[in-house]
Amino acid sequence: MQQPKAEIIAVGTELLLGQISNTNAQWISQQLALYGINIYNHVVVGDNLNRVVEAFSQAHVRSDIIIVTGGLGPTEDDLTREAFQQMSQLDVVEHKPSMDKIEQFFKERNTVMTPNNRRQARVFKDCIVLDNKVGMAPGMIVTFENRTWIFLPGVPREMKSLVAIDVLPYLLQLIGDKAIIKSEVLRFIGIGESQLEHEIKDIIDGQSNPTIAPLATDNGVTIRLTARTDSLENAEKLITASKQQILSRIGSFFYGSNEQTLEQQIIDNLRVSNQRLALAESLTGGLVTSKLVSISGASDVIKGGIVCYDTKVKEEILGVSKETIDLFGTVSEQCAIEMATNILQVLDADIGISFTGVAGPKEAEGKPAGTVYIAVCTKDGHQQVEEFKFQGDRDTIRTRTTLKGMEILFNLLKQ
């Protein structure tokens, strides 16, 4: 099969209601595009048997590969199997290894398995059963009337595991792709997507192999480089050449590749420089500390933190002077500097960082929502404080403050 037409069908009323976003389709499309498999349609259909059957029938006419996510669970509104059976008239059987796994799950937790859980072990006769290593409902690959149907759980971590381990290798074999494909994701912080594209526009416009795909994420901006060639060595050479060209332009914003995270880089840099960090968080309420201590080995370099949300906590626990608060308020660069200086001393650290501001939705101390101050002090006398005006709702402002604080720490430590 060459240049197949593929589509993705997401089953779930919660997607139509906007209760969750259809990130599964986005992720699958990105993965398949790397291997030259083009997605022609995204379809979302609610938990209604007739409408799911209709969506399946339409897809069967127009596409060679149909990937379905969701609707494989144990409840009555999980209708994916029933809809495909009604359309195809294929037999459904109970898959014993999957049933054994489900029964073992409940046995290990000493809980009673309700009868509807048996639905999750139902598969189409003679299909390829995909072992779900992070959940219970197996995936399936079904060949029906020269079409390839792939059924996957809707839970993102389960879906991604099955795609990476089983689905992609199967599809590459199906389409007869013998090329070597290698990707590397470059991660940047402190530069927006539009500015990044502007800085390397000529490189992007002239791309052929490897391809260059910028993408904004919650943790900065990424560029995915994908090379397609006849050997791994040649693919690595192509990736390296493009990476060097890009970093020669915007390398000052680069913090890591592939699965490297900003928090991991901060922890590593603290360790290399033999410095310990203390945090005073008002606006962020512990979000930054939580991010950093999620990294293994963080206890070697993170002294601790204080969530000083209330003014009295800032005064009585952290030691911010009443005079500073009376004169400038808690949302001020003066308060932020005192917070950073005092947490440095209280916890006997090498670096102190503080966060204070207005998360909203209402203004505070005469300052609008989104007003944020981040201060950093070091044992050798370095001090800096920055003011930001973030847009968005309360959670967005706190998230952006957290990311900006980690950016400041990363830039400080890489000097």
UniProtKB/TrEMBL annotation:
SMART domains from the UniProt entry: MoCF_biosynth (SM00852)
Pfam families, per database record: CinA (PF02464), CinA_KH (PF18146), MoCF_biosynth (PF00994)
CDD domains per record: cinA (cd00885)
SUPFAM superfamilies linked to this entry: CinA-like (SSF142433), Molybdenum cofactor biosynthesis proteins (SSF53218)
Domain MoaB/Mog: 7-174
PANTHER family assigned to the protein according to its UniProt record, in alphabetical order: NICOTINAMIDE-NUCLEOTIDE AMIDOHYDROLASE PNCC (PTHR13939), NMN AMIDOHYDROLASE-LIKE PROTEIN YFAY (PTHR13939:SF0)
Family statement drawn from the similarity comment of this UniProt entry: Belongs to the CinA family.
Official protein name in the record: Putative competence-damage inducible protein
